[in-house]
Amino acid sequence: MPEQEYILTGKDEKHFSFGICKASDIDEEERTVTAVISTSAIDRDMEVLKASGAKLDAFLQNPVVPWSHNTYEPPVGKAMWIKRGTKRITAKVKFATTERANEVWELFKGGFLKAFSVGFRPQKGHVPTPDEIKKNPDLAEARFIYDEWELLEFSPVTVPANPEALALAIKSKSLVVSDDL
Known about the structure:
- With 181 residues, the protein is α+β, with helices and mostly antiparallel strands.
- The chain has one domain.
- It is built from four helices and eleven strands, in the order ββββββαβββαβαβα.
- Strands 1, 2, 5, 6, 10 and 11 form a six-stranded mixed β-sheet that branches.
- A hairpin with a 4-residue loop joins strand 3 and strand 4.
- The termini are far apart.
């Protein structure tokens, strides 16, 4: 079966994918949070957003961070830097001093908020091939892989969709799970 490849050109099409940050990545003096904002894991939409395929140039020209993807209101922060790796994207956010930004900042400091989500425009992708699934059986669950995509923005959000979010919290021992679960 030949590899299926799609060029995605929907100019108005915006998609979302989720990441998580760790409470230890908060700097109260700087008023910043450093977080993994996206990974190459299969998300709850059964899609993979390859971190290595992120196009960051347009975002870097206007690195604002809105609350929960709401681009119609002033941002709650700005990205100080963003780093793209092969498996994840990390960013450092400095929070503004507006009422909404203060609320979001306090929620991060208190550990009530830990998640980020990326808003992106797909550019190139494909359905997982049998060879890819053979090398990584988890990809059998994925319905689509985004190989290239443009980062439009990223936002703090209340509910992360990235399946690695719980695993990261457990690994960092910031979450206790009962034996019943």
